[in-house]
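Q: I'm writing up a methods section and want to include an example of the input and output format. Could you take the sequence below and give the corresponding predicted structure tokens, formatted cleanly so I can copy it straight into the document?
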Amino acid sequence: MAFIGCAGVPNRYGGFEAFVEYCGPEIASKVEEVFVTCDAGLYEDVSTIYKGMHRIFINTPANGWQSIFHDLFAFFKVFKRSTHIVVLGVSGGVWFPFFRILCDILKKKLIVNVDGVEWRREKFSFFKRCVIWIFDRLAQIFSHVVIYDNVGLKDFLINGGRRKSVFIAYSGDHVIRKTEEVVVRQGGLTICRIEPENNIEMLILGALRAGLKNYKIVGNWNSSKYGINIRNKYSAYPNLSLLDPIYDPMDLAKIREECAVYLHGHSVGGTNPSLVEMLFYDCRIICFDVIFNREAAKDAAEYFRDVDSLALEINATEKIIKNRSIIREMYKSKFIANEYLKLLQ
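A: Here is the clean output for your methods example:
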């Protein structure tokens, strides 16, 4: 089995990379070989084996407009070496008719994980959203299997894609817990990309209105004008800490364990990996009220629609954190890996 379309392992970017890093080794333990293509520009260590997976480096960046060509080059790097090719995302959708012909000739299986509803993201121009919409459709039409990570995404699949689709979520049990230490939970936390779809300003205003002390937002503030402007606007508030990305697992575990409430503003499907990971901690979780978040967290979270309702939820003292043992089962890496292994049958 081969995974292409992500930035690579170990995780240096986001959800797809976290999935491959933590579920890939479990898959590799059950099959002969697992290949993962990586963005060569992100790694100093270019060793070919990582946790039992074969890394193949592509010199073309895996993100931005160049991802269209990254996926093309990645496909040919793994085509002869794997019978099942899983494309993570639809950036290479324009090539899927060609991919499908080659796969059919040599009886290989072309699988796509469509990620979220990328063509609805406000950060893209109208032209880019149209292009992504076309790529998404092409990927669904010409793949053998369509994977969606959130039940709320099924309504966004075309009829042809829905008939050959399978629901497989992200894993979250790879997070580190610091349960051996005495933890005093206080303040709030958000970990996300700093994008309009994550409702950053709404989260900040709700936290300020509620008087939430020591609210930390961890994200890529310097990657866009949007992030730079918001950071400049609110950085002087003493109860806000607007932090750069944190990748060290122990540092992430510390701030997650210590927060009393996690605020999640993700609004465009499907499942956000940060939310799944927080379900394995014991703080309160308050999510923006869209179907994607409700399907992901169900009754393990509370929900808000605007600044006022967010402030009310933050200050609600009668809320009791429900037992999350059942919902955690569906997000365990071993379970997720087995769902992918079923695609080999």
